[in-house]
Amino acid sequence: MRRGRGAGGGGVGERPPFVRAPAVRLLEGEETEAWSLSYSFKVTELIEGQEQNHQHWLKLSFSRRDAQPTESEKEIYNQVNVVLKDAEGILEDLQSYRGAGHEIREAIQHPADEKLQEKAWGAVVPLVGKLKTFYEFSQRLEAALRGLLGALTSTPYSPTQHLEREQALAKQFAEILHFTLRFDELKMTNPAIQNDFSYYRRTLSRMRINNVPAEGENEVNNELANRMSLFYAEATPMLKTLSDATTKFVSENKNLPIENTTDCLSTMASVCRVMLETPEYRSRFTNEETVSFCLRVMVGVIILYDHVHPVGAFAKTSKIDMKGCIKVLKDQPPNSVEGLLNALRYTTKHLNDETTSKQIKSMLQ
């Protein structure tokens, strides 16, 4: 027997396999915590096929250097990295998006004033250009996610083995989810986005009827405008894009056991939950944004799991401890997690199923 070391010191027993969870690269410009958090802890019943209450040890590493790609990961890693490099800029542009509400109101109130009509149109066209950039980024993010799912669920390795072997890809998967939840939080609190786009489409339609040349039409043609309209009509458009992409990935890879995907997601949810609910580990976070990162990743993987698993995340047979996850969210300052709770309430697929316990439904009311 070998002596294994846990977070709080040594313990006697066979050294179990380690799984490294995704490292954190914060997307909002703040510095990564100076220390490298590297410890291990027990999580029970994470992986299908293991005896009940069998102890699994997950090794958590939170620093950039802990998640460098191996040679076998580099191709996918580099493709995804090109997308993630633009994520921070997208968030900054969305955060600073103010809309053309004033110009639009003036134009609507004075329909005969050509100068006001031109002013409103001139204000809206560049904003629609930004909305187009956001939409196109969602398509790039979808492709990146599908590439990561392919790498993290392929046979012959189990989800646990994948998370151990492909730490850099798991890190990128977490970063995509963090970005997605952050994007949707910002979008939900900015009604100007849909107002601007609706005005753009109405005005463009009028211009076509009156045979007036439209400066912005080359930027966003009618077909693209229809797709963008459906995208922005969603309360959480990025999350909807990733949920659909994950569902499509599973349906297109029928030779791949669905458990390869769902176990990967449930393992990541469990890692985040235990890190957040255990005071010993939570106390090591010196940066609150690290906590936010873990919360967003946890909610993101729950939603994806609920969309691809036949009975979803809320059923008794689910491998995600939903009561524990919701409790972790409820234990945070209310203002900081309302968007995440709303994501569970309104973007999951099985919450309102009869198989969902009354207790879980009550916790999310």
Q: What is the molecular shape?
A: globular
Q: What structural category do the secondary elements indicate?
A: mainly alpha
- Mean pLDDT over the full residue set: 80
Beta strands, count: 4
Q: Can you give the helix content as a percent range?
A: 55-70%
Low-confidence stretches: 1-65
Family: Belongs to the CYRI family.
Subunit structure: Interacts with RAC1 (GTP-bound form preferentially).
Protein name: CYFIP-related Rac1 interactor B isoform X1
Membrane topology: Lipid-anchor
What does this structure look like?
One of its GO terms (biological process) is regulation of actin filament polymerization. The protein has 365 residues and is mainly alpha-helical. Helices cover 60% and strands 7% of the residues. The protein has 15 helices and 4 strands. The chain has a two-stranded antiparallel sheet. It has a two-stranded antiparallel ribbon with strand order 3-4. Helix 2 packs parallel to helix 6 and helix 3 packs across helix 4. The N and C termini lie far apart (49 Å).
